[in-house]
Amino acid sequence: MEDQGAAPRRADAGLGRRRFLGYVVAAPTLLVAAQLGEAVLAPTPAAAAVPSLPEPADLYDLTDLLTDATLPTSGLISVQLNADGTAAFALPRAEVGQGITTSTAMLIAEELDLPVSQVRVTLADARPELLFNQFTGASSTTVSTYTPVRVAAAIARERLLAAAAARFGVPASTLTTAAGVVSTPDGRRAGYGELAAAAASTTTIQVGVALKQPADFKVIGTAQPRVDALDIVTGRKQFAMDLSVPGALPTMVCRPPTINGTPLSVQNLAAVRAMPGVTDIATVSTGVAVRAATFGQCIDAVRALQVTWGPGTEDGSSDATVLAELKAAGLPFAVPPVNLLAHTVDSTFTFAFASNSALEPNCAIADVRPGRAEIWASLKTPIAAQGAIAAKLGLLPGAVTVHVTQGGGSFGRKLFFDAALEAAEISQLMGKPVKLMWHRTDEFRQGRTHPMSVSRVRATHALGQVLSFEQRHASVATDFSHGLGEVITALVAKLPVGDIGFSETIFELTQQTPYNFGLTSQLLSEVDKGFNTGSMRGIYSPNVRCAQELVVDQLAAALGQDPYRFRSQSLKDPRARAVLDKVAELGSWGRPMPAGTAQGIALHPEYHSMVAVLVEIDCTPAATGRRIPDAWTGPRVTKVVCAVDAGLVVNPLGLQAQMLGGITDGIALALTSGLHLANGVFQEGSWDNYFYTRQWNTPPDVQIVVLPATGDTPGGAGELAVGAAMAAVACAYGRATGTMPTDFPINHAAPLAFDPLPTTPPVPQSPVDGLTRAY
Amino acid sequence: MPHHTFILNGSPVSVDVEDDVRLLWVLRDVLGVTGPKYGCGLGVCQACTSHLNGKAFNPCSVPVGALQPTDQVTTIEGLPATVGKDLHPMQEAWLAYDVAQCGYCQPGQIMAAVAKVHQARAAGHEIGDADFDEIRNICRCGTYFRIREAITAGAKNF
């Protein structure tokens, strides 16, 4: 091993600059790979008036765990320089809208001195050798790839400098790089593309390199529009169902009338097989699959199928029965309900099932042939998917090629590979390639949900101080069987005794009480494994923190304090106080508001980031009485002010986008978005039943402020804003109406605002009146 | 099998498919035009929003047999066909405000936005909050506010 770095990259790059190790990989063109040398972030000690012991997530949270887990294998992340001067990088993560292809291109552009437009970031196929390092979740992507991606790019730059030095016969230290060109002091120039072959190595060698200091950043920290924005606005961006795979015809599954029911027999197979366009029908584990010339003909066939179904896993269950299970499962508090020395605040909150369905439904293309299989899908755990598909098909994992496509949203849904597994099973049975897509109605009824939960909070206070703050969160079991994205942890999470430990671990690593409230504790208990569940953006945080912040408002009232100032003085972390103070200032906290309207304020720390949200809500009849067909109008959030400190920010424009999405989700979870369970089936079957935020619920005034970097490493951002926004909206609603809300979303207890679609046939027919609704 | 002709993004096309197949599937599965997306097939999410003779409509809710040979169907792929420009001003506004996240709904959002601006003008006013509140297109990434900003800006340029 020797240091092949040609020259100190900058005058200050010598003593005192930490060097990182990487590789120049044997290849015909310049190919570099990085090895991570990043220390874990130092913990921030808590200081307090009535100190709370640091909670696990204060010191070592889920992002830390995921970052540490990537250490042994991140050297396999490689950047390639092409003859056309572009740099190529296959990102071992899923892009589902969160902007990581853009931020990754920025990291490479920064260290390479190459325009962002010259960096091509694609999504890597499943690579089992990456172990933990191909998992997209828990807002960990930028945190865990920030250093290794830059190291690879920095090594590439040094190799290009060395190649140029040899070509021009000058010391590398005299050369400069800018915009993909190496220049000599006397004006000779060479593009990276011309140097790429000469910079390559015939053997793999280890090299050391220093990285740019934040003060020298020219790309990181600047607002960068999405690299795929032009493709998106012209309709050229390709999602899985837009790919043209020879012979892969549209395929849909006729699904059972209750959750996880199973097909027993089909009465009219021959008649349906003879329908226009239909090529194949196969009974699979989840239902009856139909392959046809068009998806429209799949829908016709699915509706025509007469299937006898076996029971499901939740037949007879309803919101009320699950609520009873949850209430029975709550763990005891440490502090007794009656305390002679202090006042007690006891509150119980209920959160309905919610759908994490993206706009792109579950879908995958599968081409299974004897001895091999090829899969195309948006997957956040492609290695686990590859293993599971191989097991299902009776193949070795190496015989299953898994391509990760661009995803049309995830919100937790794409941690699972339900459609890819189903498509593989169908393709094998039919002996033909299939393009499998779930119907929207199936998404709501048979798709994964965010579990229903009950959160109890007990706080005590005396002499103006909060002495204890305990939370007991009971939830329908969250399926973590995707593990951390590779097969071994996926299997551990499936063990009968392993998964509660896994859930409890995730809970402890993500959930915090950000205030100095004396004795604080949070415990999770889980019930009922009959549902198809999964993490939704924020995992537990939106519900857990919403419950907490509502109790904080109660405590402030009990202590005669202003909700904002009470929070500000009780916070553990000065970074949290800074974001809170910022929204209070920008949002004119405490300004006089008309009756029926109010402000709410909340914050949320997660994954080394901090966000605060201030909202204003209108609960007057003018807002709640709006009449829009097939809509839930309800109270209107009229204004949102958000301040975020995500550590070192790679792309502030992308960070603001993530905050905006999280705010929109938080509004939905607080006010409108829930699933109603009755007789073993969710009643919602359409976007006009499941009231995710629409334009008529959108605040017309949104301000999102990115605070200056408070560190030299990025924090997580993908899920950050949901919990704070949900809590702020809930608090505002409570203040506007004078009644603390305890059931979420707040419209859940009202009579259903729609007529549920039938369960047989399982999907509705498409309308034919589109021309009459044109505008 | 029935034969259908219509004008797609400025050029005549012919397809042989049953009358009742919805236009969305004719575009995507038969003709390979994938800008219009499937989000529900119920005329609800509006991810497939395109234009028919200049008006926004949902191809998922129109049987191909309902089209006339002279009908002009414009998908997102055909929208840039404005004089002397690669992009429609609404697409440029979408880029300027970096509206998209995953991008799945955005072709439909842009097609809806252009039609909504024209509709507001036909009613004698420029597009505003009340008009935005009539746009039904779902964005599950929650980009609605940036959509409002982009429409306001884009409308000034056409």
From TrEMBL, chain A:
This is Molybdopterin-dependent oxidoreductase. The chain crosses the membrane at residues 20-37. SUPFAM superfamilies: Molybdenum cofactor-binding domain. Residues 756-775 are annotated as: Disordered. InterPro entries: Ald_Oxase/Xan_DH_a/b, AldOxase/xan_DH_MoCoBD1, AldOxase/xan_DH_MoCoBD2, AldOxase/xan_DH_Mopterin-bd_sf, N-heterocyclic_Hydroxylase, OxRdtase_Mopterin-bd_su_IorB, TAT_signal. It comes from the Bacteria. The keyword Membrane applies. Residues 234-313 form the Aldehyde oxidase/xanthine dehydrogenase a/b hammerhead domain. Keywords: Membrane, Transmembrane, Transmembrane helix. PANTHER family: ALDEHYDE DEHYDROGENASE, BLL3820 PROTEIN.
Automatic annotation (TrEMBL), chain B:
It comes from Kitasatospora kazusensis. Pfam families: Fer2, Fer2_2. InterPro entries: 2Fe-2S-bd, 2Fe-2S-bd_dom_sf, 2Fe-2S_ferredoxin-like_sf, 2Fe-2S_ferredoxin-type, Aldehyde_Oxdr_Iron-Sulfur, Beta-grasp_dom_sf. Residues 75-151 form the [2Fe-2S]-binding domain. PANTHER family: OXIDOREDUCTASE WITH IRON-SULFUR SUBUNIT (PTHR45331:SF2), OXIDOREDUCTASE, IRON-SULPHUR BINDING SUBUNIT-RELATED-RELATED (PTHR45331). Residues 7-54 form the 2Fe-2S ferredoxin-type domain. This is (2Fe-2S)-binding protein.
